[in-house]
Structure formats: structure tokens, C-alpha cells
Amino acid sequence: MRAVLTGNKYVTAFTLGMQSSMEYRLQFFIGLFNLVFPIGLQCLIWTAVYASQDHQSLYGYDYGQMMLYTVLAGIVAKLVMTHLEHTIAEDIKSGGLNTYLVRPVSYFGYRLSAYMGSRVVSDTILIIVMSVVIGIAMAFHIGEMSLNRVAVAIITLVLASAVQFLLTYTICALAFTLQEISYFFVITTLIVQILSGGMVPLEVFGEAANQWFNLLPFKYTIYFPVNVLNGRLAMNEAFQGMLIQLVWFVLLIGASRMAWKLGLKRYVGIGG
Amino acid sequence: MSIIEVNNLSKTFTYYEKKAGLRHSWRHLFHREELERHAVSQISFNIEQGEAVAFIGPNGAGKTTTLKMLTGILHPTSGHASVLGYTPWERAKAFKRNFAIVMGQKSQLWWDLPANESIYLNKCIYDIEDRIYQDTLDELAEMLDVTRLLGVQVRRLSLGERMKMEIIAALIHQPKLLFLDEPTLGLDYASQKKVRQFLRSYNEQKQATIILTSHYMKDIQDVCSRAIVIAGGKIAFDGRIDAMKKAFGDYKRVKVRFYEPWKEEEVYQWLGAHAVVHAHHGDTLDLQVEHEAIKTVSRRLIEHSGVEDWSIEEEPIEESIERIYVQQSKERGLNVGQEQSRAAELQSLEA
Amino acid sequence: MKMRSLGYYFKLYGVFVKNCVAASMEYRFNFWMGIGVEIAFLCAKALYILIVYQTNLHIGELTPDHILLFIGTYTMMTGLYMGLFYVNFVRISQYVQGGTLDLLITKPVSLQFLVSLRYIDIGLPIPNILAGAIMVGVGWHRAQLPLNWNLLGYIGFIGIALMITYCLMLLPALLSFRYVQTGAVTEMAHSIWDANNMPLDIFPMWLQRIGVYVIPVFLISNYGPKFVMGMLNLWDILWALLVPVILFILVRKCWSLAVRKYSSAGS
User: Fold this and answer.
1) Where are the stretches annotated Disordered (chain B) (predicted)?
2) Using one digit for the tens of pLDDT, what is the confidence trace for C131-179?
3) Same structural domain, B8 and B134
4) B331 and B291 fall within a common domain
5) Which of A37, A55, A180 sits opposite C192 (nearest CB)?
6) 0.90 exceeded by the pTM?
7) Which of A193, B108, B126, B268 has the CA that lies 20 to 30 A from C98?
């Protein structure tokens, strides 16, 4: 509440987001289970796959690397995926957006601040879990971990979150035009998750498909940061990827601005 | 035997309190303080077959809670009730077959289908014979003047038409007891009138018992002959509607127009303790005057040279009731409105 | 009396189906979107099939073709769950918060029936059931499994699986009576559900035991194919027949507990 006194509305939004994330404790604690269980399932499947034919290496990953990829991709997916679609679409559909449009506050700024606030607690937990995983991987010499890499990976993760947020925000502008949007978001979330490498490493799709993935922003949100972390990408490749992330960041800022401008024009046109 | 007997019925809600601020959010995550609110406390009344009774009271007074207990939706914290010979919250199927409830803001109709499909579903649920169903449907639709709208999708109907369909759906099994929670809320004047007329004649023709809550005094005066006023979870008045005035103090409303604008202090000096200023806009004055003082006040008005015109009216019944609410909350030593809105807010967060 | 009431409920369900078909024709866009959603999920499943065949995955005696039979069964069950149950279970919290539940409580019919089976989505299950059936057919054929009374047994196990699905997935949904946000619980239930994605043999023994005897999710998509392959003994079959009964009794108990809590807490 001190934030109100100092007059920064975005800080207020941040604190409110953080508070409401703690309002529902059931949600909060079960979230941990939902992190571990699917990852465990994936690991078991891969274990069965590696065991069945005495494979040394599949899709270019040895067993340890595959485990590391699966675990890290699961955590990174939780870190970068926003799940904001429904909140924003609801604002657009129910006219809640109006209350922001008439106030001296940027909707984007408000949502971003509230979102970051709501993530503080869960992200802290995720980062702790990730540190433990990295620590274990280093101790057992799985992948090629080093502190330098971790530092670089942190930057790629921040960029990945930014790209993912903008991606979501851009897609949400479709709520201005589409009638029934919730189904649509289920599709986009799933497709984004598959194409980002959140389910399985992108190598599974084969060479040809990967040529196309290079042209899309998705692989830079999960697949890329994970491979920076586990050491499959050389340092120069990591920096190259970061550059591409930056390009996508700039492009998506433009795209989201344009999409929302068009959407708002329509929104105001039909009277909300 | 009374169709409804209520004895010392009470309902207490628990809710959590959370103070603003991040520090409290964190504490709230692990520990919550439980608070209690007495929505209804120790109410008792009887209702006879064929009566039309209104529950009156401000928001959060306990009207809807009482209604919900009588229909078996809510379990009381303590007390007894017998409705049609059943204990409502045991929810016997035989009991449910004999009453209906219409809630102004909740719909049982399928939004995307014509209303008659939803009514037909009720026919199946209540297991009504084909011929009886058809006759009842025809009769109700005719009474409410919506026969040609039965085949129209509900979402294409106006609010008033939709409410009429809700009523038909609720009455298709010809219940002897009908509960209505704010049935005319948000309807236009013509629809309100139609619904009232219908309820009155349904009550008279079928000898059906009607229990109604509403904020519109017109609903209550047109449909009901008896009122139960609930304030702060307690019964403030129970009796015939025409006896309500007496019970709440017999006040008149005197409207005065002056030639020139008057100051409020001057009015007080001039009329003294005989009248209370209810409203004052420049050259017009609204006075609340007790029955006994009306002669004195009239005399002074005639004698005063500044008065252009004046009239004496009955005090609107809403205002008599409002006085009761204010009195009640003063007795309880707190501001009811504020406490309730806060409690409601907390509940909506927690549910 | 019992038979009459069974007929009564069948008739009511028929009216539900009729109403839902009529309503879904109203929103053809939603209908196609629902199909789109399921196709997207199918793509995710296709990934697993891709990996199974690419790596020529063998699990114990199971060949990739056998595994396809499991994945196909799981896909079909997912379609049935989404179309028949999920559409109702997600609505429970809306009923509670919007107060529709109050109206439903006053109806002289089983509240659980009314709440948990009132809606049927026609679009959602089509792609899954179709694709699942094709997978089962292809797997069945390629694995050279006999096609005789086996099929009848398989269908019987699908019926059992349906009962188990209804009970198991309704249990977490009951939390909506008490809590506003149950997204995390639903997510948890769904991630457990996803454990059926692969034959249970890939799990360590202790997890298999839990999944068969404690939270019997594995019965849903494993026992049908295993029966066809002759991998079930008499005890397994008896257990599979017993589980739906136990679960149904449990669900009934929890249901009335939840409703009693609701009506004594109120809103």
C-alpha cells in the first residue's frame, strides 16, 4: 500500500498480483506436484526407450543428456509460459478493459506488472528447484555445465520470458476479433509448447522440420535456453541465439503494438 | 395446520478476514482467522395455505438466506422448520415435487434452446403426464401472454419475456407452494405489472401459497396481503401490509413551495419540533410530520405569507420501512451496510 | 420401482443428449473449434507414436504395434472423458459461484446425476474416438491378435474404464464445492490421467501397484489391451469388475459430504 503513497501505480499492480497469487493456498501447493509429476512421467518413458534397445544415443542425446533436457525443459516451460490468455481475453470480452482505457494507465504496463508480481513466489521456487537440478548435474558431470554457462543461460531465460510474454500478448489481440476464444487458446498453448521443445527435444521432428523451426520464435523460448544450460550449444552459438532472441523481441513488440492498435480500433468501433 | 412453521431458525456464516498488505498475504497463506456473521437469528413465524407473504428487508438482511433454508438449499445452524410437513433440508424427493422456486437472477433455462425445451425437460424431471403437461403449459403461457414465444431461443428473448418463461418452467408441475426471490428485478414496467397480475391471480385461482422477496413496494402491495420485515437477521414486523404503517409510526409528508428560496435554519426556527426536514431545494421543502402535529403545522403554513402552495401526502411505505432499518442498525451499534458489504466482499474472495 | 427409476434416468439422459445436440448446432464455430482442440492434442500424441516407432521401442513382450493398441485405447478414453464428463465437471465451480446449484438442488432428481451428466459435447470426442479406433484397429491387425470374442471383452473393459473415469475424475472436481480456484487440482488430475499415455509396464513396480490398487487409473487404458493379449489372470479381471463398484460407492459418499458442506456453509 505504500506504493499508492509514492504514486507508482505499476508497483501497486505488482504487489497486488503477488498478493492474489498467495490468496489460494490449495492452488499454490498443488502447483509443486504439477511440476514434478509430468516431468517424472517423461523421464520414465525415456528410460524405457533407452533401455529397450540398448541405445547409446538417440536424436543426438545420450541417456543423461536426455534426462537433463526433460527435467530442465519442464522447469523452463513453467518459467516462461504465461497462462495469461484467459485473463486478458476475459478483460476484452466482458468489457473490463474499459476500466483501464478510461484511466491514466497503460493496460500493457498494468498487466505486465501484475503478472510479474504474481510470478515472484512461484518463480523463486522454480529457480531453487532448477539450481538443485543444475547442482546435481554438475556433481555427476551430466552435460557440460559451468558457471559461465549458467550466467549466459540466465540472460537467455530472461529474453525467453520476454519473447513468450509478447507472444501471448500478441495472440490475445485475437480476442478482439474471434467470438469464442477459450478453445483457441488451448490450441495455441499446446502448439506453442510442442514447437518450443517443451515436450520433447526438437530433434525428434527430423532435419527438415527443424529448418522451419529456425524461422519461428518458438524454439527460442524453451529449447534454446535449455540447450545453453546443458552445454549442447557452443558459446558462440549461444550468443548467436541470443541475438536472434533480441530480434524476435523487437519484432514482437512491433507486432503486439500493431495487433492491439487494430483490435482497439475495432473494440471502440463496436462500442465494447 | 400451517403449511410453513418456523421455529427459532438461525443461520451463521463463517468467513475469513484478511488485512491488506503483503505481509498479511504471506501470513494468510498459512493461517486464517475465522469470523462469524449471524445472517438470520432466531426467527419464528407460521404461514397458512393460500397466503401470499412478502419478505422485506435491506440487502443482506437475511431474506434470501431464510428463503434458502425453507427450500432446503441451506442447512440452518439451529432451529426447526416444517414446510408442507417436511423438514426442508432433508430434501425428500416428495417434498421437492410440491414446491417451486424462482430466482430473479438465476436461470434454469437453456440459453441456446427455445424455452419450451427447458420446460419439457422439467416435465421429464417431475414426471408429468403428457395431457396434464400440455394443459398446464397452455394455460400458463396464455395467462402470461407468451404462447407464441415458447419456440424462440431463450437468448433472443427480452428480460421480461425470459422471466415469464422462468415462471412457467417453475410452475409446470403445479406446485402448491411457490417461492420467488426478487422476481421483477430489472424488468420494465409493463413486464413487472404483468408478472404481478399473474402472481395475484395464480394465488387466488389455485389457492397456491406464495412467498416473495422484493425491493419494489409495488410488488409487495399488489401481490401480498402479509409482510414479514427482516432487518439485521431478525423479524422487525410480521402482519398485514395495511397495519405496517401503524407499526412503523404514522407520518405524513408535507410538501411546501415558497415564493422565494428559504434557508433550512429558518424553517427549523419557524416550525420548531413539529416537523423534520426531509428534503430542501431552494424554494421547495419536503417535511416529515407526525400525525398528531399535522394540524399545528397546517395552521402555521396558512398563516405564513411566504408560502405559495402546499400539500399533504401519505408517507411512502418504503420510507417507513427504511426508518426501521436505520433504527435497527443503530440499536446494534454499528453500520449494517458497511459491515455487510465488507463481509460479502470477503466471501466472494473465499467462497 | 428400481427398474422404473432406471428407465426414468435413461429417458432424462436422452433429453440431455437431444438438447445438447440442438444447442451445439447453434454454435457451429465452437463445434469446429472443439474438433480443432482435439486434433491439436492428437498431434501431441502422435509425437509419442513417432518416438515409439522411430526407436523401435520394446517394453517387455510389447512390440510397437502392441504399444499402439494401448495409445489408441488411451486416446479413445480421453475423447469419451472430454465429451461426456469433463464438460460437466468444469461447470461445477460455475454452478457453485453463480448460484445455479441452488436451483438444481430443489429439483426432485438426483443432484449428482443432474450436475455431472447434464451436458454432452458432441464435437470434442469425435477426433479422439475416430483416431483412437483407427490406432486400435491398426495395432490389433499388425500385432496379429485374434479377432473373436476378444472384441466383446475389450468393449466390456472400455465400459468398466468409463465408469472408473467418471468416478476418479469427479472426485477432484468435487473440490469446487469448497474452493474458488481449482485449476491446479484439475491440472493434477489430468497429469495423472496422462500416465495412461504409455503401457503401465514402463513404470517401476511400486508405481504400478499404486496405479492399479490405490488410485486405479491404470485400469482405464491398460486392461482392455492386456485382456486382448491374454495378459490378465482371473484375479485381475475380478479386480477390474470390483473397482467400479467400490469407486462408485466412494463417489456417492464424497458427493453427499460435499453437498452437505455446501448447504451448511452457504454463500
Assistant:
1) 332-351
2) 999 999 999 999 999 888 889 999 999 999 999 999 999 998 898 887 7
3) yes
4) no
5) A37
6) no
7) B126
